[in-house]
Design brief:
The structure is a single chain. The chain has helices at about 5-10, 20-30, 45-50, 65-70, 110-120, 195-205, and strands at about 35-40, 55-60, 80, 95-100, 125-135, 145-155, 160-165, 170-180, 185-195, 210-215, 230-235. With about 240 residues, it is α/β, with parallel strands linked by helices. A seven-stranded mixed beta sheet has the order 3-2-1-4-5-11-10. The chain has a four-stranded antiparallel beta sheet with strand order 6-7-8-9, with no helix packed on it. Strand 6 and strand 7 form a beta hairpin. Helix 1 (about 5-10) packs parallel to helix 4 (about 65-70). The longest helix has 13 residues, at about 110-120.
């Protein structure tokens, strides 16, 4: 995915409506321990979590995102390491390590995803947990010809489209959010390799972790066949 200044500017205003539930869920797992967010971005979750008294550090590959985080109230107090999620380039141990909003799928090979699990495990305290929030990819297999074009917004001065192509043989999606306006064309490309919940569980086992909880959302709704979202909690 492109994580330049344009995306960082939009990310500051991005809200999904589950922030309060997500922060409460994560704060309960962190307790009095330290937390680390992989793909911290502009602080949608990290800043309110830190405001609840949790010590939060972060990892992100985008300096533009981190610059936006720094400019927000409380952002300067959060330590952020620039680097890949797979490397978890930090020191010390954490009671909670988490990655939200499908960010784990930005790792584009299974080897990178497994390496992330292994490096997370190396930084977890004995009672620590690793939380992954991601979509369940069932919907991709219902697409016509493994692709779609969606009109996200049609306004007088701008049209926004979402285009996606899915390759089930590699579990890859290529997507672009396209804005057409008088100012020109703006593209926000996304490439992801998704993983099924059972695949995540096997990656965890490789890293010496086990599934402890699974929910259909941060509000702890049951995870069942109707769930679109998956919140997985792994520990030793």
């Amino acid at each position: 995915m492109s994580f330049g200044t344009d995306v960082a500017a939009e990310d500051v205003d991005l809200r999904r409506g589950d922030e309060e539930a997500a922060v409460a869920f994560l704060a309960g797992l962190a307790g009095a321990g330290r937390a680390l967010e992989l793909g911290i971005g502009t602080g949608r979750i990290a800043l309110p979590l830190a405001a609840r008294g949790v010590r939060v550090d972060g990892v992100d590959i985008s300096t533009a995102m981190v610059d936006r985080l720094r400019a927000r109230p409380g952002g300067e107090a959060i330590e952020v390491a620039i680097g890949s999620l797979a490397d978890v380039p930090v020191t010390g141990v954490y009671r909670l390590i988490y990655v939200v909003f499908n960010t784990f799928f930005n790792l584009l090979t299974q080897d990178e995803e497994v390496r992330c699990f292994e490096n997370v495990a190396a930084h977890l305290s004995a009672d620590g947990v690793f939380v992954i929030e991601a979509y369940r990819p069932d919907f991709l297999y219902r697409l016509r010809n493994h692709q779609y074009v969606d009109a996200e917004a049609i306004e007088v001065d701008e049209v926004r489209l979402d285009l996606l192509r899915h390759d089930p043989s590699t579990q890859m999606i290529e997507e672009s959010h396209v804005s057409l306006s008088r100012e020109g064309v703006r593209l926000n490309p996304v490439v992801q390799r998704y993983a099924w919940p059972a695949e995540l569980d096997l990656m965890a086992r490789i890293a010496g972790l086990r599934l402890k909880e699974r929910w259909g959302g941060f509000d702890r709704r049951p995870y069942d066949r109707s769930s679109d979202n998956v919140v997985s909690v792994y520990g030793r």
